[in-house]
Write a structure and sequence with these properties.
Elements (H helix, E strand, L loop, with lengths): L8 E4 H4 E4 L17 E4 L6 E5 L11 E5 L5 E4 L4 E2 L4 E6 L5 H8 L21 E4 L2 H43 L13 E4 H4 E3 L13 E5 L14 E4 H4 L4 E4 L3 E4 L4 H4 L2 E3 L7 E4 L3 E6 L5 H8 L2 H9 L12 H6 L1 E4 L2 H43 L10
Parallel strand pairs: 3-7, 12-17
Antiparallel strand pairs: 1-9, 2-8, 3-4, 5-6, 5-8, 10-19, 11-18, 12-13, 14-17, 15-16, 15-18
Helix pairs in contact: 3-10
């Protein structure tokens, strides 16, 4: 624990918080509905999993902190709720404790939780913490929330700007494929099925290499959503030569499984070792013919409109739904001559370059805002955010 003002005490979480097991508040059915009133919570990133119409076993003694017993994630809750599972503790303050002071303090703690076990009783509750008098806790919380209100407003504005830029990018794509972006003469365009201009999941000839040679491997996790970016993992040929998707330079990888497809995990692969590579079986491979640019196809299938339409044709069980290859084969797309494809791609890239520069700047500012929040919290719990009252 860092140095604290002399009039502050050293305490422990278990001294200022009492916990309740959530068993009485676990939801009986996970058939949630947007029209229901009671939220079902987790302390993880999802927070609100859905809403239930169950009337019994609702937690009402708020405000509280919910604590994920396995990850140590926390959420402040000031509304009635039910919970998904028993993998949490419901934390309430003892006397002379401002619960928001404790919650904000928890946001500065990065507790190592790399073992699958419950942490509250065994470790976390025993952590030593700084504790000022109650009136000073109240002042600190007021100061934190005053600062955070301004930062959160800036964050909200940054996120709105980000959404507008993404909408702009989609409008660029829409105009590209109806001829408006380049003021095209549509008489020279044709409508072609994707299967006529691309091989879908083609055979890939592998040159003679040895089992111990490293080749390019691309798991789903190495493809960035909506970025046309990927990374490869050097993997021995003997490990991946059977049971994986094969592709070669200039092919397009299209994630067929939910939610990767909806998230836009698509990329054009290039600079592969030996000119070919291997990847997840959850990719469809598109190989355009010599009259069709890979980037033209990439941008077409990157449209939100395309992905939403593809979603309607997915087959399979919930959580394992996939876009069938036949959907891609039969899909009709507008196809201008090759020279015009080049012009369209260059115009898209020109506009996307400016848009992406703005997005990068927004991302930098969002990161700075989060760093500023952590700086404020650090000052708060070292006694430097409000003037010493003593």
């Amino acid at each position: 624990m860092n140095k604290i003002p002399k009039h502050w005490q050293k305490s422990k979480f278990e001294d200022v918080l009492q916990y309740e097991q959530p068993s009485k508040y676990i939801v009986k059915s996970t058939e949630y509905g947007d029209d229901y009133k009671t939220p079902v919570l987790t302390a993880g990133k999802s927070f609100i999993l859905g809403y239930t119409d169950e009337k019994d076993g609702i937690f009402t003694d708020v405000p509280v902190i919910i604590f994920d017993d396995f990850t140590t994630d926390t959420k402040f809750v000031d509304f009635h709720f039910k919970v998904k599972s028993s993998a949490m503790k419901i934390l309430k303050p003892t006397h002379n404790t401002n619960i928001k002071f404790i919650f904000y303090l928890m946001q500065t703690i990065h507790h190592k939780s790399d073992t699958h076990k419950r942490y509250w009783i065994s470790e976390y509750a025993k952590r030593e913490i700084p504790l000022p008098p109650l009136d000073e806790q109240n002042l600190i919380v007021k100061k934190i929330e005053g600062c955070f209100e301004k930062i959160d407003l800036a964050i909200s504005n940054f996120k709105k700007s980000k959404e507008l830029i993404e909408i702009y990018k989609q409008s660029v794509l829409s105009h590209a494929f109806n001829g408006k972006l380049t003021n095209s003469n549509l008489n020279s365009w044709q409508f072609k099925k994707l299967g006529e201009i691309c091989e879908i999941n083609p055979k890939t000839e592998i040159s003679e290499i040895f089992d111990m040679d490293n080749v390019s491997f691309i798991p789903m996790s190495c493809v960035e959503a909506e970025k046309n970016k990927f990374t490869t993992i050097d993997t021995q040929y003997k490990v991946v030569k059977k049971g994986y998707t094969k592709f070669k330079d200039n092919d397009i990888l299209f994630a067929k499984i939910t939610p990767c497809m909806e998230n836009g995990k698509i990329c054009i692969v290039n600079d592969l070792k030996f000119g070919f590579g291997f990847g997840s079986t959850e990719f469809h491979v598109l190989r355009p013919n010599i009259y069709t640019l890979s980037k033209y196809i990439y941008f077409f299938i990157s449209q939100t409109y395309f992905r939403k339409r593809a979603e309607k044709f997915m087959t399979g069980a919930v959580g394992q739904r996939r876009v069938p290859a036949k959907y891609l084969v039969d899909l009709e797309i507008p196809l201008p001559p090759l020279s015009e494809q080049n012009l369209i791609v260059s115009q898209i890239e020109k506009r996307f370059k400016a848009a992406d520069s703005a997005l990068n700047l927004i991302e930098q500012n969002l990161k700075k805002a989060e760093i500023l929040k952590q700086s404020i919290l650090s000052k708060a719990f070292n006694g430097r955010l409000v003037k010493d009252k003593k």
